[in-house]
Amino acid sequence: MRVSPGAAAKVIGAGTVGAAAALMLCKEPEITESPDTLVADVPGDLSQPLEERLSLVMTGAAPTAMQMPLASAPDFVFDSRTLRFDLNEAALKPGAGETLSAVVDFLNDYPEISVRIADHTCWLGSNEHNLHLSQRRAEAVAAYLISQGVDRHRLAVAAEGESQPVDTNLTEAGRASNRRVEVVRL
User: Fold this and answer.
1) Residue 86 — pLDDT band, cuts 50, 70, 90?
2) Average pLDDT over residues 37-61
3) Which of 10, 106, 131, 137 is the most interior residue, by most CB within 10 Å?
4) What letter does residue 169 receive in the DSSP assignment?
5) What distance in Å separates the CA atoms of residue 49 and residue 54, rounded to the nearest whole number?
6) Beta 115-120 vs 155-161: how paired, if at all?
7) Mean pLDDT over all residues of the chain?
8) 61 CB contacts (<8 Å, ≥6 apart)?
């Protein structure tokens, strides 16, 4: 039962004992239990199961680093249609660093995350040629990320070749769109 300060003073009366009793009656409860949740005035993650939280409530202990949940990294998909390659070329074009800065920032913010770098080509040339070119392009992106301090063991490269177009291969603009890199969190 919660009693307002004014009502507690009227019931208990004046004096030191009355003031102490009023404080106890008016204090917010430290634990309120319902069938679904437990709310406690203790530090820690209250989304844990009730059994795990009870020990925190009873001891008043803050959770240790082992008990604290790890912050999860957001999903990350980088589909760059602005990171373009010239026909039959694997060299990064000027400005590629600016385009790849989102990938570098994400990987620096979440050092436990690994990514897959997949390169795609247009359909000009043989399938074998496009797969080889695609591999070289994915490796060029990986080399850039490594040059920016990303650990090479966090990077997987994949050559998709011409197998997954996002645009028509019948126009130059469509073929340019198909020459792209995707970076996906593993």
Assistant:
1) confident
2) 48
3) 137
4) S
5) 9
6) parallel
7) 76
8) 42, 55
Backbone phi, then psi, for 41, in 5-degree steps?
A: -90, 60
Could you give the count of Cα atoms lying within 13 Å of 140 in the half-sphere of its Cβ? 19
Q: In angstroms, what CA-CA distances link 29 with 6, 37, 119, 122?
A: 18, 15, 59, 67
- The label of the residue with tokens 């999860």 reads 72
Q: How far apart are CA 139 and CA 88, in angstroms?
A: 15
Cβ atoms of residues 131 and 116 within 8 Å:
no
Q: What is the CA radius of gyration of the chain?
A: 30
For residues 124 and 15, what is the distance between their CA atoms, to the nearest angstrom? Answer: 93
> Where does residue 86 rank: exposed (0-12), middle (13-18), buried (19+ CB within 10 A)?
exposed
Structural domains of the chain sorted by starting position, each given as residue range(s) with its CATH number in brackets: 1-30 (no CATH), 34-69 (no CATH), 77-185 (3.30.1330.60)
For residue 162, give the DSSP letter: T
Structure confidence by residue, pLDDT tens digits, 119-137: 999 999 999 999 999 999 9
